[in-house]
Automatic annotation (TrEMBL):
CDD domains: HTH_XRE. SMART domains: HTH_XRE (SM00530). SUPFAM superfamilies: lambda repressor-like DNA-binding domains. Residues 17-71 form the HTH cro/C1-type domain. One of its GO terms (molecular function) is DNA binding. This is Helix-turn-helix. It comes from Prevotella communis. PROSITE patterns: HTH_CROC1 (PS50943). It comes from the Bacteria.
């Protein structure tokens, strides 16, 4: 393996670790504390300027609360898309492609968290429309990559994946589901005041993380009740 390829791979692994840390809203200090290391050590790994061995990678993954196999899948997919590794033949772990969703300027915005090498962003006024744009946009992007001569993993070409939507705040979450569930119903199940939910939905007030969790759990509970309904 050439030194240039080695450096490129190391840098991309650092970027992936950094993205996952930020996605979980952790600071470098948090990871350093968990590993019993200095922040400078974490900074160099994420910048790709320091080599990380397999045991250190395992510890880093544990600090991020996921397994080495999960991160290995991310490494393989990311590096192969950048032609830094051979293409994986199948999505053996059946992973989901994560998409972050936010609400601003009276519309939804969606961006891919990982997997896709380039930044893709989609906008729509209705969440159902956004989902269609994300699906069609990803398909179009993969076709463009193939036309441009870029290597695309077969499991992406064969659509062996599910798309998981991550809502960045209560506003986007409520805006997505209010067309199907009233605030009154969500209030009853979550125990959160309906007026407070209305303020969250309209962006007048920011919900705390524990409040967002209660809203998500309420929506899941309502979904289970609907699925259990029989005629």
């Amino acid at each position: 393996m050439s030194k240039e390829l080695y450096i490129k791979r190391r840098k991309q692994i650092g970027i992936l670790l950094q993205l996952e840390r930020k996605f979980q809203k952790l600071e470098q200090e948090d990871i350093a504390r968990s590993l019993g290391a200095r922040q400078e050590y974490i900074s160099k790994i994420e910048a790709g300027t320091r080599r990380i061995d397999i045991l250190e990678l395992i510890e880093y993954c544990e600090a991020l609360n996921f397994s080495l196999s999960e991160f290995s899948w991310k490494i393989e997919t990311k590096l192969s898309a950048l032609s830094l590794l051979p293409l994986p033949k199948t999505n053996i772990l059946g992973r989901k492609i994560r998409v972050e969703v936010s609400w601003s300027d009276n519309r939804f915005s969606a961006t891919f968290v990982d997997i896709v090498p380039e930044t893709l962003e989609f906008n729509a006024e209705i969440f159902a429309e956004l989902q269609i744009k994300v699906k069609d946009g990803l398909d179009a992007h993969l076709k463009e990559m193939a036309v441009d001569g870029n290597k695309v993993p077969m499991w992406l070409v064969n659509k062996e994946y599910d798309i998981e939507y991550i809502f960045l705040d209560a506003t986007s979450l409520l805006r997505a589901y209010v067309p199907f569930l009233s605030l009154a119903v969500i209030s009853r199940v979550s125990g959160i005041n309906q007026n407070q939910l209305s303020q969250y939905a309209n962006g007048l007030k920011k919900a705390r993380p524990n409040q967002v969790k209660r809203i998500i759990e309420a929506i899941h509970e309502i979904g289970k009740e609907l699925m259990a309904a029989e005629v």
